[in-house]
Each structure stands twice: as C-alpha cells, then as structure tokens.
Specification:
single chain, alpha+beta, Rossmann fold, OB fold (Dihydrolipoamide Acetyltransferase, E2P), 2 domains, six-stranded mixed sheet, five-stranded antiparallel sheet, 20 strands, 35% strand, binds adenosine-5'-diphosphate, binds magnesium ion
Amino acid sequence: MSSEPVTGASSASSTVDIIELEDLRKEYPGVVAVDDVDLHIREGEFFTLLGPSGSGKSTLLQLIAGIETPTSGELRIRGERVNDVKAYNRNTSMVFQEYALFPHMTAQENVEYGLMLRGVDEQTRAERAGEMFEMMGLAGKEDRQVTELSGGERQRVATARSLVVEPDVLLLDEVLGALDEKLSKEMQIELKNLQQTVDKTFLFVTHSQEEAFTMSDRIAIMHDGDVAQVGKPLDIYKNPNSEFVADFLGVSNIISGTVTDVSDQHLVIESEGITYRVSTAGIADVPAEGEEIGFFVPNEQVVIGAEAANANEAVVADTVFKGPHTQYVLELENGSQLHAHETTGETLIEEGSSVTVGFEPSTAKLLR
Ligand code: ADP
Ligand code: MG
C-alpha cells in the first residue's frame, strides 16, 4: 500500500445503494441492540458507523454479514432481500476486532483460507495471495507465523484474508483499536488508500471520531441501537442535529433555554438568567415564544474580548495551551461554562482572569 496521505471524502462512491436497511431490528433477551434502523450505503463508499460502546455498531455489522439474523425489518444487498441468506452466500467479508487470525497457520495460509473454503485450486490460491501480499506491503512475510508478525502486520494480514475473496463489501469492526496511536494514524491512511485502490465498499465500525473523520465518505452516528445522524463528516461536525451528536463529537457549547422573544431575524433565549440572541436566518420553522429549545456554538466561534456579541462577564477557569491553538474554559456568572478554541496569541490569558466572552448570533445553530 502507498503511504501517500489522502484527505477527507473521495468522490469515488456512486449513487447506487449497495446495502439497504429498512426498519432493521435485533433484540436479545432484555436488550434492543438494533432499534428499527433505516440506512442506505452506496456502492464504493467508505462508510463508518461511529458511536459509543454498546450503541449497536457490531450487531448491525453482524446482521449485514449474516452472522446474526434480524428480529424484524428488511436487509437488502444489491437490491436482493438477504434476511435469510447464509453468511457464506452473501458477498460480504468481515475483518474482526483483534483480527481473529488462525494462530497455528502462517500468514499465507491465513490469507488463502477463504479461497480454500471456496474450492479454489492451489496455484490460483498462491497467485491471488501473492497479489495481496504485494498490495498490502507484506511481500516476504508469507511464511511467518502469526506470532512473528507485528500488530500492524497482523492487521494487514487480516485485511488481506478478507479482501482476497473479492467481496462486494468489506466489513471492518474496530480493526485499529489494538494499535498504538502512531501506528493507528498510519493505518488510517493505508486503509483509505486501500479502499480507493480496490474500489470496494468499506463499512467500518469505530468509537473513534478521528478514525471516522479521517477515512469516511459518510458517517452514521449510532446511539442506543439507532442512527442518530447520517452525513459527510464535516456536515455532521458543522450541523449536529441533536444534543447527543453535538456532545458526542465534543465540538460545541450546548445551551438550552426558553424563547422569550421572536423578531424578524433573531430569537431571544433566556438560559439560567443569561439572555442570548440567536439568528433565525435560514431556519424554516422558527420556534415560538415560550418554547424550550437548545442551540450550540462551535468552540471556534466563541470570542474572548470586549468586542464580542452576546457578551457576558466570565472568569477563565482553565487555559490549555495546545501549540497553535489554546483552549479556554470560561465560567459565566450563572455557573455555566463556555469553551473557546482560539489561535494562540502573543500571550495566553491566565487562569483566574476576568474577561468578556460571547459569540455572533449567526454562529449559533438551533438543535431541532
Ligand atoms: P457496540 O459494537 O456499539 O459496542 P454492540 O452491537 O456490541 O455495541 O451491542 C449493542 C447492545 O447489544 C449492547 O447492549 C450489548 O450488550 C448487546 N448485545 C450485543 N451482543 C449481544 C448478545 N450476543 N447477546 C446479548 N446481548 C448482546
Ligand atoms: Mg462493537
């Protein structure tokens, strides 16, 4: 694999849906693991299920793989209902968490395994495995025992083992979770490049925002067995549709309160004794007076200084220097906090300083 960095979303994916889930549900005794999910994944996409532990990501992947059967709903691959189609008759292939390589086999035997099950002859198996070793940068490691491979190499062998059978969809469950941070970052780039090289649909599961944002064309944020939001990484980051998503992504200040006034262009919202003005530009269904609503302000949009709109007095509770950026936690008089993410200036604002803090009404986004 090449180590050329690639960024963000590719335009490689088509508009044809390869996987369609409709009202897909999986119950275990006492647990709804997947709660009536509707989701369409396009051919050639790098699509990620991102969510906290227990949100149903692995179960959803296993339903698609055919390892688990749905309780209700419909699952289609290439337009064909596959609810009752056995795993080995679906053209999907799974890379498991912790890889699940066969420890008593060599790297090559692991990679050839799926071809052997399919009755592919020895010579063809060796050729196809050879191509995989070449593509994955593993040439020369064919005869290694699994125990003689590094974490990154095991990850590549596991990916090769799943890809060699030429699935329509490669399913990957937390496959970078066991790697250290530096290796994980390298593998993120490798996996994205690999996906573009083989031009297949990758359905990736992770709880890591960084992994999801680095590799994915689109993301579904999972919450309690359901999809909370689907979209391109940047669109979700800029426009989380709920407090859960905004909070999970950790990008924003979330403020809730009561609408006390509605004008042509602004709402006035009272939140625990502090009044904010929020722009209504571009909002189709403007909330009414008296409504309880929430809004968020990205950390990057919080302004420290006397010129700030929506200004309030605050005390700097925390200053975290991060090199080019500095993060400030600002405590307002009502005890609530705003987080600001600023370009580091000549000097840092010291903890304990009294400042004015605010944000432009147009940078606040309503949560609906
Ligand atoms: P994630 O992969 O997002 O961490 P899972 O899909 O593994 O989440 O689990 C979703 C929920 O379903 C959790 O509450 C989990 O405990 C439950 N669950 C998953 N697999 C099983 C199982 N085989 N039997 C019973 N409960 C399960
Ligand atoms: Mg899981």
